[in-house]
Amino acid sequence: MHKIPESVLVVIHTSDLEVLLIERADKPGFWQSVTGSLDRLDEPLLETATRELFEETGIVADGDTIRLHDWHLSNVYEIYQTWRHRYAPGVTHNTEHVFSVCVPRDIPVILSPREHLQYAWLPYLEAADRCFSSSNAEAILQLPRHYPTR
Asked: Which domains can be identified in the chain, with CATH numbers?
């Protein structure tokens, strides 16, 4: 079954703007925030973001203490050639919807070993520099606008 070319990006951060990055298992050295495609065309974006957050980190967005924030921002980007085989023939672009979630620094992180090798907490500027994806880096750089620390 082909992946749907519509996905979420979830920037996980603390109140002092440290960002959680995870290293891809299929591409060691490639660091990113949580990402994932819709499971079905009618899956609500918030549901996708909640599911992917839990699947990739074990963090549960309960809507109360851990609440996802929809930035109402979408990026359209060309799918890297190395991953195009996952999509239907002729699909070259993906639409990514940006979310963030503020969590305590000591929250337990449980990675999916099939998807990720390790994680790191970094100040947001360092995290943006480490991301391989330009849309992910840009979202992290916009974090202070979406989560003012004052």
From this structure: 6-146 (3.90.79.10)
99 close to 71: Cβ distance less than 8 angstroms:
yes
Residue 43 reports pLDDT greater than 70: yes
Contacts of 122 (CB under 8 A, 6+ apart): 18, 19, 21, 130
Q: What pLDDT digit, counting tens, does each position of 66-120 carry?
A: 999 999 999 999 998 988 999 999 999 999 999 999 999 999 999 998 999 999 9
pLDDT on residue 150: 43
Give residue 93's identity as a one-letter amino acid code.
H
Residue 49 and residue 99 in contact, taking contact as beta carbons nearer than 8 Å? yes
Q: Which two tokens stand for residue 136?
A: 């992910």
Candidates 3, 10, 126, 114; CA nearest to 59 is 10
Range list of β-strands (E), 2-145: 6-13, 18-24, 31-32, 34-37, 68-78, 93-102, 116-123
Question: What radius of gyration, in Å, describes the C-alpha atoms of the chain?
Answer: 15
In this structure, how many other beta carbons lie within 10 angstroms of the beta carbon of residue 113?
A: 8
